[in-house]
Specification:
The protein contains 11 helices and 7 strands. The protein is an alpha+beta fold. It folds into 2 domains: 34 residues; 198 residues, Glutaredoxin (3-Layer(aba) Sandwich), CATH 3.40.30. Helix 5 runs parallel beside helix 8 and helix 5 packs across helix 9. The longest helix is centred in the N-terminal third of the chain and has 27 residues. The relative contact order is 0.16.
Protein backbone atom coordinates (compact mmCIF):
# COMPACT_ATOMS: atom_id res chain seq x y z
CA UNK A 1 0.00 0.00 0.00
CA UNK A 2 2.81 2.36 0.93
CA UNK A 3 4.49 1.63 -2.39
CA UNK A 4 1.27 2.41 -4.24
CA UNK A 5 0.88 5.73 -2.40
CA UNK A 6 4.45 6.67 -3.29
CA UNK A 7 3.80 5.91 -6.95
CA UNK A 8 0.61 7.96 -6.95
CA UNK A 9 2.40 10.84 -5.20
CA UNK A 10 5.20 10.72 -7.73
CA UNK A 11 2.70 10.68 -10.58
CA UNK A 12 0.83 13.68 -9.15
CA UNK A 13 4.06 15.57 -8.56
CA UNK A 14 5.17 14.79 -12.10
CA UNK A 15 1.86 15.97 -13.42
CA UNK A 16 2.14 19.26 -11.57
CA UNK A 17 5.66 19.81 -12.91
CA UNK A 18 4.47 19.00 -16.41
CA UNK A 19 1.56 21.44 -16.16
CA UNK A 20 3.81 24.19 -14.83
CA UNK A 21 6.32 23.57 -17.60
CA UNK A 22 3.56 23.49 -20.21
CA UNK A 23 2.10 26.70 -18.80
CA UNK A 24 5.49 28.44 -18.96
CA UNK A 25 6.09 27.22 -22.51
CA UNK A 26 2.66 28.26 -23.76
CA UNK A 27 2.97 31.62 -22.04
CA UNK A 28 6.26 32.22 -23.83
CA UNK A 29 4.50 31.49 -27.11
CA UNK A 30 1.79 34.07 -26.51
CA UNK A 31 -0.88 31.91 -24.84
CA UNK A 32 -2.70 32.51 -21.58
CA UNK A 33 -5.29 30.61 -19.56
CA UNK A 34 -8.95 31.37 -20.06
CA UNK A 35 -11.19 29.58 -17.54
CA UNK A 36 -13.83 29.10 -20.21
CA UNK A 37 -11.75 27.35 -22.82
CA UNK A 38 -8.27 26.57 -21.54
CA UNK A 39 -5.16 28.02 -23.12
CA UNK A 40 -5.81 30.59 -25.83
CA UNK A 41 -3.71 33.09 -27.70
CA UNK A 42 -3.13 36.09 -25.45
CA UNK A 43 -3.75 38.42 -28.37
CA UNK A 44 -6.92 36.54 -29.23
CA UNK A 45 -8.20 36.96 -25.69
CA UNK A 46 -7.23 40.63 -25.53
CA UNK A 47 -8.81 41.29 -28.91
CA UNK A 48 -12.25 40.34 -27.61
CA UNK A 49 -14.77 43.04 -28.49
CA UNK A 50 -12.18 45.28 -30.10
CA UNK A 51 -12.90 46.69 -33.54
CA UNK A 52 -9.75 47.12 -35.61
CA UNK A 53 -9.06 48.62 -38.99
CA UNK A 54 -6.21 47.15 -41.02
CA UNK A 55 -4.58 48.32 -44.20
CA UNK A 56 -5.30 45.14 -46.10
CA UNK A 57 -3.22 44.85 -49.29
CA UNK A 58 -5.33 45.65 -52.35
CA UNK A 59 -4.01 42.55 -54.12
CA UNK A 60 -4.56 40.20 -51.19
CA UNK A 61 -6.07 36.92 -52.40
CA UNK A 62 -8.72 35.93 -49.91
CA UNK A 63 -9.51 32.22 -49.61
CA UNK A 64 -12.65 31.13 -51.44
CA UNK A 65 -12.96 27.45 -50.58
CA UNK A 66 -16.09 27.56 -48.43
CA UNK A 67 -18.76 29.91 -49.71
CA UNK A 68 -22.31 30.27 -48.45
CA UNK A 69 -24.71 32.28 -50.59
CA UNK A 70 -24.56 34.06 -53.92
CA UNK A 71 -21.05 33.70 -55.32
CA UNK A 72 -21.51 36.99 -57.18
CA UNK A 73 -22.66 38.97 -54.16
CA UNK A 74 -21.24 42.50 -53.99
CA UNK A 75 -20.30 42.17 -50.31
CA UNK A 76 -18.39 39.31 -48.72
CA UNK A 77 -18.07 38.55 -45.03
CA UNK A 78 -14.96 36.48 -44.37
CA UNK A 79 -15.22 34.54 -41.12
CA UNK A 80 -11.80 33.61 -39.73
CA UNK A 81 -12.63 31.17 -36.97
CA UNK A 82 -11.20 28.32 -34.90
CA UNK A 83 -13.46 25.34 -34.26
CA UNK A 84 -12.13 25.08 -30.71
CA UNK A 85 -12.77 28.71 -29.80
CA UNK A 86 -15.84 29.21 -27.59
CA UNK A 87 -16.30 32.82 -28.67
CA UNK A 88 -16.25 31.64 -32.27
CA UNK A 89 -18.95 29.11 -31.48
CA UNK A 90 -21.17 31.74 -29.88
CA UNK A 91 -20.83 34.08 -32.84
CA UNK A 92 -21.25 31.37 -35.45
CA UNK A 93 -24.35 29.90 -33.81
CA UNK A 94 -26.04 33.10 -32.66
CA UNK A 95 -24.99 35.98 -34.93
CA UNK A 96 -24.29 34.31 -38.26
CA UNK A 97 -27.87 32.97 -38.68
CA UNK A 98 -29.17 36.54 -38.41
CA UNK A 99 -26.72 37.71 -41.07
CA UNK A 100 -27.83 34.84 -43.29
CA UNK A 101 -31.53 35.69 -42.89
CA UNK A 102 -30.97 39.42 -43.41
CA UNK A 103 -28.41 39.43 -46.22
CA UNK A 104 -27.39 36.03 -47.55
CA UNK A 105 -30.83 34.65 -48.32
CA UNK A 106 -31.60 37.64 -50.57
CA UNK A 107 -28.27 37.42 -52.41
CA UNK A 108 -26.81 40.69 -51.11
CA UNK A 109 -23.98 39.12 -49.12
CA UNK A 110 -21.99 35.92 -49.21
CA UNK A 111 -20.16 34.28 -46.32
CA UNK A 112 -16.72 32.72 -46.72
CA UNK A 113 -15.57 30.55 -43.84
CA UNK A 114 -11.81 30.38 -43.29
CA UNK A 115 -10.63 27.92 -40.61
CA UNK A 116 -7.88 29.35 -38.45
CA UNK A 117 -6.91 26.52 -36.09
CA UNK A 118 -5.20 27.49 -32.86
CA UNK A 119 -4.35 23.99 -31.64
CA UNK A 120 -4.20 20.36 -32.79
CA UNK A 121 -7.81 19.59 -31.93
CA UNK A 122 -9.03 22.56 -33.93
CA UNK A 123 -6.81 21.45 -36.80
CA UNK A 124 -8.29 17.94 -36.69
CA UNK A 125 -11.76 19.46 -36.76
CA UNK A 126 -10.82 21.60 -39.76
CA UNK A 127 -9.42 18.60 -41.62
CA UNK A 128 -12.54 16.54 -41.00
CA UNK A 129 -14.71 19.44 -42.16
CA UNK A 130 -12.92 19.22 -45.50
CA UNK A 131 -14.03 15.58 -45.67
CA UNK A 132 -17.77 16.06 -45.61
CA UNK A 133 -18.06 17.76 -48.99
CA UNK A 134 -18.70 21.39 -49.84
CA UNK A 135 -22.48 20.96 -49.83
CA UNK A 136 -22.35 19.88 -46.18
CA UNK A 137 -19.48 22.07 -45.02
CA UNK A 138 -21.46 24.78 -43.23
CA UNK A 139 -23.82 22.25 -41.66
CA UNK A 140 -20.83 20.33 -40.31
CA UNK A 141 -19.16 23.53 -39.12
CA UNK A 142 -22.33 24.32 -37.20
CA UNK A 143 -22.33 20.83 -35.70
CA UNK A 144 -18.69 21.18 -34.62
CA UNK A 145 -19.50 24.43 -32.85
CA UNK A 146 -22.72 23.10 -31.34
CA UNK A 147 -20.94 20.03 -29.94
CA UNK A 148 -17.73 21.91 -29.15
CA UNK A 149 -17.68 21.22 -25.43
CA UNK A 150 -18.29 17.51 -25.99
CA UNK A 151 -15.17 16.99 -28.08
CA UNK A 152 -12.99 19.71 -26.57
CA UNK A 153 -13.51 18.39 -23.03
CA UNK A 154 -13.15 14.74 -24.00
CA UNK A 155 -10.13 12.63 -23.04
CA UNK A 156 -10.03 11.61 -26.71
CA UNK A 157 -11.14 14.62 -28.80
CA UNK A 158 -10.24 12.98 -32.11
CA UNK A 159 -12.51 10.02 -31.34
CA UNK A 160 -15.41 12.38 -30.64
CA UNK A 161 -14.68 14.35 -33.80
CA UNK A 162 -14.77 11.15 -35.83
CA UNK A 163 -18.21 10.40 -34.37
CA UNK A 164 -19.48 13.76 -35.56
CA UNK A 165 -17.96 13.12 -38.98
CA UNK A 166 -19.71 9.74 -39.09
CA UNK A 167 -23.05 11.47 -38.46
CA UNK A 168 -22.28 13.55 -41.54
CA UNK A 169 -21.54 10.54 -43.71
CA UNK A 170 -17.78 10.26 -43.32
CA UNK A 171 -16.78 6.72 -42.38
CA UNK A 172 -13.91 5.80 -40.09
CA UNK A 173 -11.56 4.84 -42.94
CA UNK A 174 -12.12 8.07 -44.84
CA UNK A 175 -11.82 10.13 -41.65
CA UNK A 176 -8.45 8.55 -40.88
CA UNK A 177 -7.21 9.44 -44.37
CA UNK A 178 -8.46 13.02 -44.09
CA UNK A 179 -6.74 13.52 -40.76
CA UNK A 180 -3.43 12.65 -42.43
CA UNK A 181 -4.00 14.77 -45.54
CA UNK A 182 -0.81 16.83 -45.56
CA UNK A 183 -1.78 18.76 -48.68
CA UNK A 184 -5.02 20.01 -47.17
CA UNK A 185 -3.28 20.71 -43.87
CA UNK A 186 -0.69 22.81 -45.69
CA UNK A 187 -3.44 24.84 -47.38
CA UNK A 188 -5.21 25.48 -44.08
CA UNK A 189 -1.98 26.50 -42.39
CA UNK A 190 -1.10 28.67 -45.39
CA UNK A 191 -4.39 30.54 -45.07
CA UNK A 192 -3.75 30.85 -41.34
CA UNK A 193 -0.27 32.29 -41.88
CA UNK A 194 -1.54 34.76 -44.48
CA UNK A 195 -4.29 35.85 -42.13
CA UNK A 196 -1.86 36.45 -39.29
CA UNK A 197 0.98 37.97 -41.30
CA UNK A 198 -0.75 39.92 -44.05
CA UNK A 199 -4.13 40.78 -42.56
CA UNK A 200 -2.88 41.39 -39.05
CA UNK A 201 -5.39 38.99 -37.50
CA UNK A 202 -4.62 38.73 -33.80
CA UNK A 203 -7.36 36.41 -32.60
CA UNK A 204 -10.53 34.53 -33.35
CA UNK A 205 -13.15 35.16 -34.38
CA UNK A 206 -12.17 37.88 -36.82
CA UNK A 207 -14.53 39.03 -39.56
CA UNK A 208 -13.55 41.00 -42.61
CA UNK A 209 -16.31 42.76 -44.51
CA UNK A 210 -15.11 43.22 -48.06
CA UNK A 211 -16.46 44.96 -51.14
CA UNK A 212 -15.29 47.11 -54.02
CA UNK A 213 -15.30 49.99 -51.53
CA UNK A 214 -12.64 48.41 -49.34
CA UNK A 215 -12.14 46.02 -46.45
CA UNK A 216 -12.89 46.37 -42.77
CA UNK A 217 -11.69 43.93 -40.10
CA UNK A 218 -13.66 43.28 -36.93
CA UNK A 219 -11.95 41.36 -34.12
CA UNK A 220 -13.71 39.44 -31.40
CA UNK A 221 -17.32 38.46 -30.80
CA UNK A 222 -19.67 41.10 -32.16
CA UNK A 223 -23.41 41.56 -31.97
CA UNK A 224 -25.60 41.36 -35.03
CA UNK A 225 -26.23 45.09 -34.70
CA UNK A 226 -22.49 45.80 -34.90
CA UNK A 227 -22.11 43.61 -37.97
CA UNK A 228 -25.22 45.11 -39.57
CA UNK A 229 -23.84 48.64 -39.34
CA UNK A 230 -20.71 47.71 -41.25
CA UNK A 231 -22.47 45.55 -43.84
CA UNK A 232 -25.07 48.28 -44.45
CA UNK A 233 -22.28 50.83 -44.87
CA UNK A 234 -20.73 48.74 -47.64
CA UNK A 235 -24.04 48.06 -49.35
CA UNK A 236 -24.98 51.73 -49.19
CA UNK A 237 -21.63 52.78 -50.69
CA UNK A 238 -22.10 50.36 -53.57
CA UNK A 239 -25.71 51.06 -54.46
CA UNK A 240 -26.05 54.77 -53.64
Amino acid sequence: MESFIKKVSAWVAGGVVFLLAASFYLSSKGFEFDEQQGFVLRKAYAAEEEAVKKDIPANFAFPSDHILGNRNAKVTVYEYSSFGCSHCADTHLEVLPEIIREYVDNGAVRIVFVPLPLDKNSMDAALLAECVGEDKYFDFAGLLFKKQRDWMMSFDPQKELKKLAAWSGVGAEKAAICLKDDKTAARILGDRKAGLDKLGIQGTPTFIVSSSKGNEAIAGSRSFEDMKKIIDKHLSAIYN
